[in-house]
Specification:
The complex is a heterodimer of chains A (248) and B (204). With 248 residues, chain A is α/β, with parallel strands linked by helices. Chain A has helices at 54-64, 80-88, 105-114, 150-159, 181-190, 204-213, 231-241; strands spanning 5-13, 16-19, 24-25, 41-46, 71-74, 93-96, 119-128, 131-139, 144-145, 164-169, 195-198, 218-221. In chain A, strands 1-4-5-6-7-10-11-12 form an 8-stranded parallel barrel, surrounded by 6 helices. In chain A, β11, α6 (204-213) and β12 (218-221) form a beta-alpha-beta unit. Chain A is globular, with a radius of gyration of 17 Å. Chain B starts with a strand and ends with a helix. A 9-stranded mixed beta sheet of chain B has the order 2-1-3-4-13-12-11-8-9, with helices on both faces. A 4-stranded mixed beta sheet of chain B has the order 6-5-7-10, covered by helices on one side. With 204 residues, chain B is of the alpha/beta class. The longest helix of chain B has 14 residues, at 190-203. Classes of the chains: A alpha/beta (248), B alpha/beta (204). Chain A binds chain B through residues 1-5, 37, 40, 61, 64-66, 68-71, 87, 89-92, 112-118, 163-164, 192-195, 217-218, 247-248, and chain B through 11-12, 14-15, 18-19, 21-22, 47-49, 52, 81, 117-125, 143, 145, 147-149, 165-166, 185, 187-191, 193-194.
Chain lengths: 248, 204
């Protein structure tokens, strides 16, 4: 039986680990505190203005040689050459954001070279104010409404060779109120690929609710408090006790 | 003992090298026949599409190298696409011939179950069918990391080491004489994966 995956997403600004909520730097936490043995997958994202810095490439290298789980890398990919640089430094998958939204052929080029299993397309989704069940994909960190619904966007991305779709709920991100279940359930039912959910988890019950009510493949947390001490171990134990298929 | 890792420049072999280093095994990276002269075992890692991978094998004359090493009874471990090319053919992007060291065909999951998410990505269980040193010290039904859209079918049960369920049961690892192959990625499967790589080095 295929297990549900718990993915940790870490954001870095100029090589320093960031708490994503309100982008406050917190120097108490470093890359070294994370328990790399309990996670199923790791995602690292560069949010610096200047991308592809030596510092960030060194971080990719650090994680790729110390975690022994799949490593996804994102931040500023606009071309095959950008992706090459991340793969060369140890990425197993790359995360495409809005940088390639106007040119899906880039996903196709990357897919031809590395295979579709190596590409995750991230979709930043937000509820349309006029209709609660209606969502749009946004670019530029939630500033620009693309007026495309997530399923349509996802289908196009898959046709260009993307392997997985990450759904980020802009409304719920950082809220700690739980995942946007209707959004995730809808996209997961309509798309034929593994879906990763991100945004909104506050407590362990939120993860259970997500796996219980949708057929999603994985969830991603970037809340730094979920990563301290034995948090991931305790989350996994909690989910297993609630009969969710989770790797030991 | 020295392990040769075949590098066809098809993507990330950094994690495999990191795993081999973590285990402190003697290894070298082999880009051509010449690089392989002093190795005792070979790993053929592979990511990406079957057809592209076979083309790279032929362009770099790795097929000749493998023929030569297999005739000298050297052990070979194929990983992921490097596992799939060991068989007769694949139906990924049309029908493409493999190396035919082992009998079997690589088919889409979609042929067997319609309501299934492709690719098959994540940690899944390997049920041991035939005991082998490759899985020495690894519990039955342990989880390994998979990422693929096509799987092995029409294979002789005797050579299947483990079976995995995703819509249907498929062979997730095989062994015939000195040829070993795993569909999953041991280098990304933490402790179980490291153990398997060490077993290959120590016993195979």
């Amino acid at each position: 039986m295929l297990k549900k995956r718990i993915i940790i997403s870490l954001t870095f600004l100029e090589g320093v680990l960031f708490r994503t909520k309100n982008f406050i730097p917190d120097y108490r936490y470093t890359k070294n505190f994370i328990d790399l043995w309990s996670i199923d997958e790791l995602m690292i994202i560069d949010i610096s203005d200047k991308k592809f810095s030596k510092d960030f490439l060194n971080l990719i290298n650090f994680f790729s040689t110390s975690c022994f789980v799949p490593l996804s890398v994102g931040g500023g990919i606009k071309s095959l050459q950008d992706a090459d640089l991340y793969f060369k430094n140890g990425a197993d998958k790359i995360l495409l954001g809005s940088g390639t939204i106007n040119n899906p052929l880039i996903a196709n080029e990357i897919s031809m070279k590395y295979g579709k299993q190596s590409i995750i397309q991230a979709l930043d989704c937000k509820k349309n104010s006029n209709n609660i069940m209606n969502y749009s994909v946004y670019s530029e960190s939630g500033k620009n409404n693309l007026n495309i619904d997530p399923t349509t966007f996802g289908k196009t991305a898959l046709s260009y060779g993307v392997g997985e779709i990450l759904i980020n709920s802009i409304d719920n991100d950082g809220s700690l109120l739980g995942f946007d279940i209707p959004l995730i359930d809808k996209v997961s039912k309509e798309l034929d690929c593994p879906i990763i959910a991100l945004g909104g988890a506050g407590n362990w019950s939120h993860f259970f609710e997500l796996f219980d009510r949708t057929d999603i493949s994985a969830c991603c947390t970037q809340n730094i408090f979920h990563l301290t001490e034995h948090s991931i171990i305790s989350l996994k134990k909690f989910l297993r006790n609630h009969n969710i298929k989770i790797r030991k | 003992m020295k392990l040769g890792i075949i590098d066809l420049d098809t993507g990330n072999i950094a994690s495999l090298i990191a795993a081999i280093r973590k285990l402190d095994l003697k290894f070298k990276i082999c880009k051509s026949q010449f690089d392989c002269e002093d190795v005792d075992q070979l790993i053929l890692p592979g990511v990406g599409a079957f057809k592209d991978f076979m083309e790279k094998i032929k362009t770099n004359k790795v097929d000749k190298l493998l023929n030569d090493k297999l005739s000298k009874k050297m052990s070979i471990l194929g990983i992921c696409a490097g596992f799939q090319v060991l068989f007769d053919k694949s139906y990924e992007f049309g029908e493409n011939k493999g190396l035919s060291y082992l009998n079997g065909e690589i088919e889409s999951f979609k042929n067997y179950s319609k309501n299934i998410k492709i690719p098959h990505v994540g940690w899944n269980e390997c049920k041991i069918l035939n005991k082998n040193k490759l899985f020495e010290g690894i519990e039955d039904n342990s989880d390994f990391y998979f990422t693929h859209s096509y799987m092995l079918k029409n294979v002789n049960k005797d050579m299947i080491l483990t079976e995995t369920k995703y819509g249907i049961d498929f062979a997730s690892s095989v062994k015939l004489k000195n040829i070993y192959g795993v569909q999953f990625h041991p280098e990304k499967s933490q402790i179980n994966g490291l153990k398997l790589l060490k077993n290959f080095y120590d016993y195979c």
